[in-house]
Structure formats: C-alpha cells, structure tokens
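Hello,

Our lab assistant flagged a job as stuck in the queue for most of the afternoon. It eventually completed. Since we weren't sure the result was trustworthy after the delay, we are filing this so someone can double-check. Below is the sequence as submitted and the structure that was eventually returned. Let us know if re-running is recommended.
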Amino acid sequence: MNKLPDSDLLRSQFDDDFLWGVSTAAFQIEGAHDSDGKGLSIWDVFTNRKNRIKGGQRVGMACDFYNRYQSDVQLISDLNIPNFRFSISWSRILPFGEGAVNQAGIDYYNNLINSLLDKGIEPWVTLYHWDLPQALEDRGGWTNRDVVLWLSNYAQICATHFGDRVKKWMVVNEPSVFTGAGYFLGIHAPGKRGINNYLKAIHHVTLATTAAAKVLRKEVANAAIGTTFSCTYIQSATSSERDQAAAKRVDTLLNRTFIEPILGLGYPLNDLPVLKKMQKYMHPEDAENLSFDFDFIGIQCYTREVVKASYLTPYIGATLVSAKKRKMPTTEMGWEVYPESIYEMIKRFNSYEGIRQLIITENGSSFPDTVFEGEVHDEKRVQYLRDHLRHVLLAKKQGYKLDGYFVWTLTDNFEWAEGYHPRFGLIHVNFETQERIVKTSGKWYRDFLSENIL
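-- returned structure --
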C-alpha cells in the first residue's frame, strides 16, 4: 500500500456524489439537561456521581447547543459542510422513556431540522447515541429484553414527527462501546459491570437495532436507513501463534460481534467462545430477527491497537501494548496516530457482501488547543485529517466501496468520562463564555470542501 502525496488531496478526486459532513451527539453538545420537560438520561445521572468523570467535572451547559443551534447551524453553513449528523435525545422526546410525548422536545428538533434545511444542509439523525432515559435504566435498561419494544416505539414517534423531512437515519451509535464500557467495565453510564449484563446488552441491542430499523422502513418514505459501528485496526505484537490468536479474539470482539449478526451471519461464537454464554438469553425466534438489510453502514475509525496474549485477562486472554510503550505518536486521548488504520478498516468492511453502502460516520482527533490572539492554530489536527483522507482516497482509487466521510466533531464538547479536557472540534468552545472560534482545522475543511488546493 502506497501513500498518496499531499498535493493529490483534492475534493474533485472523489466522486461528485461522495458525502461530506460533520457529526455530533445530543448529550455532548445540547446542555439544557432539565429544560422544557426533558427527563433524566443515564448520563445525566452518571455524571453527577462522585469520581465518575475525570477531574470531577459535570456536564452543565455543555456547548449550549439547545439554545444556540441557530448560530451553530450558521457556522456549519459558513464552513460549507453539506451534511450534519446529530442525535435525538430520547429523554427530551419521552421524559420517562415511553408514554407521554414531550411537545417541547418535538418542537426543538423540528426547529433544528427546519433550520438546517433552510441553509441547504441535509440532516442525518441518529436515534440512539448512548443517552438512555434513566427511567428505563431503572427497569434494567439494555439488560431488559423489553428495550426492543421501547426503542421501536421511540423510533415510531421520531419517524412520525420528523420523517417527512429527515430521510437519513442511523439507529444506534457504536454498540460495542456503550455495551462494553457501560455494562461490562462500568466506566461509562450506567456504570454496570459483569459478563452477564454485558452479554444480555449485546443481544438486546442487536435485536432492538433491527426492530427499530424495520419501523423506520415502514414509516418513512424514501428513507436511507443505516446504523454505525466503531472499528479499530488490530495487529498482533509478534508473529507468535499465541499473540496472533489473542489479536483474533480482540478483533472479533471489537469489529465483528455486532456487524455480523446484523448482516445475517450470526454471532462469531467460534472465534470468541465467551459469546456462547449469550445463547441462554436467546429465544427461538431471535435468529431471524437479528438481521436487517440496511441501506448503509457507518464505520467510525480513529486508531489501531497492538495486542499480545495475556493469561491474566479474563474471557479474551489478551492485553493491549500501548502506543506510548511502542513510542508511537498519540492524540490527547492516548490513541495512536496511525492513518493506515482507516484504509485497513475500509478494506475489511468491503469484504462483507451484505453491505450496500459504506460511510465513514466519524473520524477525528483530540490535541491540545491554545487560543492566541483570537485564533486556534491546530496544525496537528489538520495533519491528522489530511493524512486520513489521503488513505480514504487511496481506498477509493483501489476500487473499495466508500460513499462518504464525516468529521468528528463540529465543536469541542463534553467527551463522556473524559469531561471537557479533550477537544475534538473544528470549532473551539470557551465553556465559560460559550464563545466559538473556528480553528485552523475548520478553515482547512471549509477550503477543502470549496475545492481549494491544499
């Protein structure tokens, strides 16, 4: 695989219908957590617990997008970004997860959607981006099989109120992350731990994803329906059989466990034996309800991981060799900067015959940003985006299916358990004053989308 030179990176080298955008998530940007009838989400509760968020931070106003969406939509327009991915806060629509609809929440998202369309920006809606209503978590959340019905009913309401204008839908965001971190490791909301919680969550998320997709298919005319998966390029630390087997197990866990049943291939039980424990939670009719013919699949790739065998790690028998230990460059999240990873994951997902359309629905980086004389010169982020897009273009030139690329993210935001410190945005946010400053990376993306030579 040969890298392309920087001079070859032009928007015009991509297909005319290649999709360009930027992605966000409701909890990370909206704020207004208790405004206008909104109910509590699991993240509202989790962030108020002691020692859960780095530095003891709480979400507060976040980016105050709830009140500032009009000016932020104008910024999206100013940056020439034609597609905007955002999620709908489930508890803003249904404060208790089901039952009575909160009209103020409906009005807010209607206004946001209309504002985007007025600027010629296509809205891409994610139904579920990690913020389950706390009222449903009190009843078991994703470990309760009833969540399949809960998500389907929520999808029905969103389709009814927004489906006349929103035609691009994603059902869930990165299920491997919110199940693993939230229901096995306990480091994300709702803070549950244990293999049984985790396996139940995996299965119920998969069933709920396809059930909600079927609702959208029925209720929204001319809809493009997708769902998104995190993916990480996995390599073994050595060529030993033990390390290669460990890498295969980690790869199965992170990259295969959710996409393969969705595609009708079933869970990869043989390559990750712990998944066989999930069979006790499966009903006879589940096999035919695990898959759905999605119009597109979104993949979200940031880095690679190098893996070695470890008897000390339960269930997967593997441990990561950190980028720092390998003396590789990293982002502020400690993730290795390895642009080849996005090429490798495009290639990998192209090996699945059941994927109609493939879109990079998140890619971006966190680096320390400094405001100096009213400017933020984030050259490392510019280089990260440029290098990753060169590998996206390489994949396209080699004939791999790929139909779009969305940057993570529009503005600096609340980065889950990491709090406000890591900054991923194309736009800098002063979280005390809510002042916005378009970074050098935002201007770079604007110029790239405007066909300027970079």
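-- support follow-up --
The delay was a queue issue, not a problem with the job. The result is valid. The mean pLDDT is 96. The CA atoms of residues 143 and 200 lie 5 Å apart.
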